[in-house]
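Replying to the earlier thread about multi-chain prediction with a worked example.

Input:
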Amino acid sequence: MVRFLSERIASAALTVVGASLVAFIILRAVPTNPARLIAGPFASDDVIAEVERALGLDKPIYAQYADYLVGFLSGDWGFSYSTGQPVYALIAERFPASAELALYAFLFAFVGAVLMTVLVSFTRSRWLDRFLRIFAFVNIGIPPFWVSLLFLMLFFEQLGWFPGPVGRGPAPGEAVTGYYTLDYLLAGDVGGFWAALRHLALPAFALALAPMGFLIRLLRANLLDVTHEPFVTVLHSKGVAPLSVHFRHILPNAFLPTLTAGGLILAQLLGGSVLVERIFVWPGVGTLVIDGILRQDYAVVQAFIMLSAFIYIGVNLLVDIAYGYVDPRVRRS
Amino acid sequence: MKQALTIIARDAELFAGVAVFTLIAAMAAFGWLLWPVDPLQVDVLDSLAPPSLAHPMGTDDVGRDVLARFIRGAQVSMLVALAVTVLGTLIGGFLGLLAGLWGGLFDTLVSRIMDAILAFPPLIFAMAVAIGLGPGISSAVIGVVLASIPWYFRLLRSEVLRIRTLMYVDSARALGASSFRLIRRHILPQTTSTILIQASSVFSFSILTLAALGFVGLGVQPPVPEWGTMITEGLAFALTGQWWLGFFPGLGIFLLAVSANLIADRLRDIYDPKSAVGAG
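Result:
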């Protein structure tokens, strides 16, 4: 187990180096003047000179890369030139909003996909199965920002069931965790909790559709695969009750890939709700990034790009380790 | 050709996918002949008109005809996604082929680079490239191509590793076939179906990603009509009743992406009935 762990961690570290190198090349080495890119076209010459000094552009390229990586790892992500604040503080301040949205979207996607797929596969109805497949397909092809728009037009403008694009709604009196639903629960304010949930519902659901389709396809294929394994036939012929075969033997064997994919989807959601946040005016990291793109204030955007790679690699590592822990075959190979 | 048509006619889902895809492709190619309206023609007096006979998809905030813009958007999306798919297939496939065949240092090196690219969520990676090279259509294309290369690379590499150990490849080598001949005659033909399936998935991915880049302002630049940017423009009018501005371009993206996905999925079933995702 120790060997497995150290191998995985070493490989993740190597990927961190590779990913940061790729980001460095794209964002620092390729642009003709990275300082101009970061400070934006409206920055004065003084600011550009300042940024050049901060980036160490006079140093040799390998030293610049080392500065870049060390700077990122130590939380020195530069300054946002449109707001004048350090990028780290800006992102940290908005992270809980994005994380809460991502978690709820993940919850919808994962629970919805597993429930639907397991139930449909248990009923063995060809008609329901076909419906589920088409549902998964449609979900994967929907552009999330378009479906957000449709949701708003239908559920807010036409029906008035959910709040419009006003972000997270009223903030709880005391911000303990930064997660509105949790803070309201801790304060014992059920009405506030309900309001926060209603603000979350549409964006979270819009984000959840594509991952849900993906998970349905994966779990469905794995369930079908396991159902056709010889050991299932043996269990049936021994007279084990169908319910027990299905939930105690087939499901656990088919579930691992879904769990793995679930982890990666969570990582993607944490860094990938950019487009949907914009539509719902969600005060998260995504809105910050799009504002950064529009104002050409790229320090924020660059930090976000590295950050999402780090989250992705980190979650990947955790999933790998969990997998090895659960399935001894992975550990040995 | 006749065989392909028979397969399509027998499979209802594949038929639906191919039909929708062909319809959009035909609209992109010939739509401007049937609807000869200039997508850039501004007519402020007739702005924000709802869908009618004169403007089947309505007009936008400066009175441009949405149907004409939709058709031009289809051309842009189709051409760009096609370019991305072809480039990604060629570059990623070629690298994967060589890595699988040569192994060694080349394989290790390229595999590491691919892992580094895969460490970014695909959309974020394409965004990074588009920013680094400066917003615009060519940087968007390069970004999406680079994001799609690792998938082809991994697929082709593992396919080649599998095929090269097969008996008939050994026999051909023993008979003195050159590397080039091995690839061209014995390995590449075995991978056509895999590449085809991957290419239709990548087509769908690039449609969605290009629209997303356009949506955040990093893709095709105005005034060229592109579906993603059209949705952004429609955003401001979505909640004041002018639903047609954002609805139709999104519908186009959706139909194109779903039909390409559907084709990929059915092909996978037909070529490889035992594959995990296609089972049943």
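Chain A has a mean pLDDT of 82.

Feel free to reuse this layout for your own posts.
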